[in-house]
């Protein structure tokens, strides 16, 4: 081979060398065996076998060993440390969560916009968005992981807009490899994780066949937020109290005079007397004042101990009372996983090699939230409203309320409360009766039924069989068929049957005739087990996914060009998916976990693809890829007949090209373009759901909007629902949330994206480096509105409503309750359903992100320590230039450099800088010392770019330091290490994602020590 070609091959290997070095001792190009340049492999992003390890697109590569070196029992824990990955659905995502699953999110574009592969083939999916659960991947068999960021749809099909994570399994494995890991937090020793794994394999038939079997068992101990100080107090608030709270009627209120008299009898000073909408219940029959945020009126006559089940949030108490729901929520999800994986191949002759693989994973996880807050609707018994509403004669005909309603004849109504109720002299049109005879509306959180818990069991089976070989000189083929099935069984406890609670409340004896002791909703009162059994409901649901993939392609060489053979690939692929959701028998007026309707649908793709690689000269190479994808889906709930031809059909082209040029031996320049599409998934087509994201209320008198907006700002707040009596004193409750609902849309079209990358690879002696710029833009995004963007658009924080016009459709979408924004019901003008105000998923807007990836590697021999000693330094760094989102009404917002908050979605914090620096000192051949430094840049709050001029806190910069010592003794390898060695606590800010921080981005466990042992022979 020519010297120039050898130099280019070595240079082209640099990105891989760097990638491997990110987490392990690098194998530098100059140390490669002499014949390595003649080897052929397939690099992710192409199906053309190439000399050595060339890549014209940016590829980050890590070894399989790296994924377990730090005792991580799930792949996401390791992958989320890479700068190209935006941590999203992780082990610390309890609410909003992903049901215990682990996903990867490239560039923050969403885990449903990148593709996970095993050996270039699709593994089984595990969610309605057709994402792959990383818990189902066999860690022990991974040889390396190749991450192509920046589009690969032409090579691999839908879902690869942001890129591909390709897990390459060990090939021709021989021997036995046993490993055990154990880790725990220090000094708390409350985050135990351990893993046992083993691989056995060998060749047979004189090396023409190989079989390998891997088995793993992993267990992770769950944590609750009370176990970490930073997370033990909620940073957001709730109006649903376990003490119960009085819901005052605006049209039949209790008199302020009666409240003044009652609280004077408690000894409360006149200036601290609460208003009618600020009353809670003590267990002794008295009432307490909830207080008002950031005002002179504090909590009054509160007769619970701070450590009682009333559990006041000490971030706000005694300024005002809010229940601290976070203290019992889960911080780290528990996990128990068993998995097995088999891979085998047998070469009959060079033209026929059979290969198979199969896997089985079973794992159990759980989530838990604070006891159920009840906001279920109640209508009159004659109503034809949905069965999801409870019925009560205490509600006026044709009306609907939320919460509970108690008759004034209930025996648990105390004399103190009755003195207030008797002051009512008007009429609430929502309630039957009038004056003092109307029912009592209360808010309530049901402690008696315990936490809202989900016990989840996931079972994944997948199998694959194929045939490959060389049928002519320089021409190869491969064909395979794979099948997989995922079954998710969920058991949800802590639900409350609101109809049965109403039965107890409306019974003359308070429910004692229905269950022992009945139900007293006024204060925190004991609830007998018989009553718990009477009102509680357990929901059992099952979700099942089936996937079938068939693919065949041929690759070969058409002609000789000056730089080498002209390589081509032609192939066809069919993918079929089926999604079935069985909501079980739990249906009706249930509070807790949402009741659902059944789903049943299919999705099908037929793709034709091709690729061309043209080495125009020794120093110049061009490659082109193209794919035509025809898709169709079917909603079997509506269509009924599974043999119908399908609906929602579309045909789309994806295509791309790369070019590589080496002007000198030490430098290679590369660029790429990819046009990709992503078809809508099951969740987007058929499903929907409601959410309660955190909001900011501009009408609060302490906002910059009110303080600087003058009479126009004040008037708009009046026009949008703040009462005239409180307009000049209204202070919004911090951490408030607003309800919004989106629904599926079977008329959705695929998203489209365009990706550009340009970069360079350098190599000089022991130094290797790469730098790449990427630019990804997604158009016709499958869009759901952002609540805070809607609120900001109403109140003129951007150019959408600069005149503060009350008739703006954004203002029409706001629904207030007791002055606070409680829900968003969009008008038809903004895409809302004219009846419900729900928003249907549509193709609208765009997302664009760009940045720079840098990888540096350096090997420094240290002969003064030992002749085999060397120091290897490797840096992987990402700088985010922008992350621009075009939302409802064309609103443009750049979220680069911002930290997210609850409800914006997991994986939506976007630091400008992220970096990982690895160093490995090989003291001797058998002894080494590793250091890993992880850096995340400080950020401003996402809300600060939505509400320009308002002040919010954001997280500061964070460094984590990890150390490990490894020793090899014959066939044994021992490793001891510590992650987050200096016990860096996560930065807290408000509003935040969860737990006072972003738990998917920052370490919430703290210092974690681990030991591992490995036997390999």
Would you kindly provide a brief summary of this structure?
The chain has 1017 residues and is mainly beta. It is 10% helix and 42% strand. Strand 26 (536-561) and strand 27 (564-582) form a beta hairpin.
Explain what this protein looks like in three dimensions.
With 1017 residues, the chain is mainly beta. Helix content is 10%, strand content 42%. It has 15 helices and 51 strands. The strands form twelve sheets. The chain has a 22-stranded antiparallel β-barrel, surrounded by four helices. The protein has a four-stranded mixed β-sheet with strand order 3-5-6-4. Strands 11-22-21 form a three-stranded antiparallel β-sheet. A hairpin with an 8-residue loop joins strand 1 (40-41) and strand 2. The chain is elongated. Mean pLDDT is 88; it is low at 1-40.
Topology diagram in text:
Layout: H1 3-12, H2 14-21, E1 40-41, E2 50-51, E3 59-63, H3 66-69, H4 75-79, E4 114-118, E5 142-149, H5 153-156, E6 163-169, E7 175-185, E8 193-204, E9 209-220, E10 223-224, E11 245-246, H6 256-265, E12 279-281, E13 287-289, E14 330-332, E15 335-349, E16 352-369, E17 372-373, E18 377-379, E19 390-391, E20 400-402, E21 404-406, H7 415-421, E22 440-443, E23 445-446, E24 452-472, E25 475-497, H8 498-506, H9 529-535, E26 536-561, E27 564-582, E28 590-591, E29 599-617, E30 620-635, H10 636-639, E31 647-664, E32 667-678, H11 682-686, E33 689-691, H12 704-719, E34 740-743, E35 751-764, E36 767-779, E37 782-783, H13 787-794, H14 809-812, E38 814-817, E39 820-824, E40 839-840, E41 842-843, E42 846-861, E43 870-886, E44 892-894, E45 898-899, E46 913-922, E47 927-936, E48 940-941, H15 942-946, E49 958-969, E50 972-979, E51 1008-1016
Parallel strand pairs: 4-6, 18-19, 34-40, 45-48
Antiparallel strand pairs: 1-2, 3-5, 5-6, 7-8, 7-51, 8-9, 9-15, 10-14, 11-22, 12-13, 15-16, 16-24, 17-23, 18-20, 21-22, 24-25, 25-26, 25-28, 26-27, 27-29, 29-30, 30-31, 31-32, 32-35, 33-34, 35-36, 36-42, 37-41, 38-39, 42-43, 43-44, 43-46, 46-47, 47-49, 49-50, 50-51
